[in-house]
Structures are given as C-alpha cells and as structure tokens.
Amino acid sequence: MRDPYTVLGVPKTASEGDVKKAFRKLAKQYHPDANANDPALKEKFNEVNAAYEILGDTEKRGQFDRGEIGPDGKPRFQGFKGFRGARPGADPPATDDILNEIFGDAFAGFARSGAAGGGAAGAGARGRRRAGPDPFEFAGGAGAAGRTAGAKGTDVMVTARVRLEDMVESGKVRVVLPSGKALDVKVPVGFEPGAQMRLKGQGGDGDPPGDAIVILTFEPHPLFRPDGANLRMDLPVSLDEAVLGGRVRVPTLDGAVEMNLPANSNGARALRLRGKGLPDKAGGRGDLYVTPRIVLPDGPDAGLEQLMQRWRELKPYNPRDGM
Q1: pLDDT of res. 150
Q2: 142-178 b/e (C-beta count within 10 Å ≥ 16 → b)
Q3: For residues 308 and 249, is the Cβ–Cβ distance under 8 A?
C-alpha cells in the first residue's frame, strides 16, 4: 500500500481539517455510486478510505508517523525488547546475537555446531539439550504461544444508503455486513455523504474482532435533493398557475401540504417551506426549497398557440438577454 499522505495528497504537517477535506473530495470523486463501470476507480476509492483510516485517526496517525505501523495499518517490527540496539523499524538480531545475549558464547557455538550435524561436539550438545530445559521451547513453544495475544481481526468497509424518509422517521439505516449480518444503526444527524461510522467488533474474526467501517451516502430520491439539512425539489406547474398564481399541493417527507404560489412565478426564485427539510444538529429541521417548473399540456393546442402568437406580436421579450 502507498503512503497515506501521498494517497490523500496532503503534507505531513496537514491539519486534521485539511486531511478530512482532502478525503471528502477524493471520496466523492471515486465513489462507486458515481463510477459503477470503472473497477480501477473503485480500487482508488478503497485506497483513499484506507489512507483516511490512518490519517483520520489521531492515535493511528501518530503511530504511523513514529514508524510503529505501516501504510496497511499493521504493526511494524519494533525489535526484541531487552536486547541492546533494538529500535523501531530495525532488522531482527541474528540468531547468534540472541543466544549470546541470553546464554553466552556456549549456546551460540551450539547453534553453529548443530547446523553442521554429526560430530562428537554435536552429539555432546544434543546430550546437553536432553539433560536440561530446551531454550527453544521458551522462545517459540506452546508456553510462549499461550502468552501471546491473538491477532486482531481485519476491518471491513461497507457502504450504507440512507433513505431521506428514514432520516425524518427512525433516524436509522440498515447496514448489511459482508458476513450477511444486518444491523439497524443510528445515523449521525447532519452527516455529509462520504462520512464514516465505525462499528466496533463487527469486522473480521480475531482476538479482538475487527471493526466495520460504514461509509454513509443518501439513497437517491425521485423528488428531493439533499443540500445540507435542507431539501430541494422541482414542482411542475401549469402555465396558468405560473401566470395567475394560486394554491398548489406540494409533497414533503411528512406528507403533502398546500402552498401559495405567487402570480408570475417563473422558476427564477425558489419558494421556501420552513421545517420540511432534514433533521439538523441543532435539534430542528432544515427547510424545503420548491422551484416552480412550467409544464405545457401534452400535444398541440391550437388555442394556446394562437394566444402565444398574439402575445409574441404585442409583448415581445427575450428571457436570455445578458447570457
């Protein structure tokens, strides 16, 4: 895996905010929802998420900067504690050096003579090993294995699509893990697409188990478009409604409501319905912004065409002036 700073395109001095900003930009650029037919971009998306897993976590970022973990998030070899010369990232000491540290030159010589195999010295060494405790059992036998902590399970990444209706009703999203297990999880209020949630212990098997990293995005809605805590929609209106105004019925996440459409509404200005948006971090609701879109009747209409022809003659105007 590549250096996470390189993946996100930020320097090592980047602030937490700069790291988050870079991640969100790249996550939107490479998100599978926008690049379903390009497997290479999906790999880039996974790489960006893996990099943010390290740099977006203060503790892991510190461990990476100190050389304690690699770009894959796994611990690097830190040397054998207690041996002279051990340092983070150092190569492990040679076998003879280890034996000299623990048992002296005699056992270092034993390692060499045992490798030659078959001489009297080798037979004597084997006899000495049988007569006393075997040092290799302490270094790597069952006793040591019993004292070693198990390997942590791998983290898994999944994408959860949040329905706009659920943000208003339950506030939860169903997360389906790679194992097939499904969880109903509370969604953070006011999240932005690409935001992540960590589900502790819901990843790969291990001791302890890994975590599930959930990437949140909105399920596309046929009517509404999220804009922070606000929603936006286009409302079809007839020509006479746009010119004369009147009461029109508008769908919302809470059910349809009546709205006053001003006369001469031409779609240049959105109309606001307060409190009909998504929940916000302050405990309230955003607004719904409704943009009127004039829709003409299906098929030709001779009367309408004559009216518009007369209008063109008497009231010519160009709505594209200045473009």
Answers
A1: 66
A2: eeeeeeeeeebbebbbebbebbbebbbeeeebebeee
A3: no
Segment 80-118, tens digit of pLDDT: 544 444 444 444 444 444 444 444 444 444 444 444 444
Residue type, 245: G
Give me the pLDDT at residue 141, please: 39
In the structure encoding, which two tokens stand for residue 293, read together? 């879109």
| pLDDT at res. 149 | 53
Dihedrals φ, ψ of 287, to 5°? -110, 165
Consecutive 10-residue runs of the chain (323 residues): their mean pLDDT?
89 91 86 72 84 89 89 73 46 46 45 44 43 40 43 88 92 90 91 89 88 92 94 94 93 94 88 95 94 89 88 84 78
Strands 246-250 and 257-261, bridge-based pairing: antiparallel
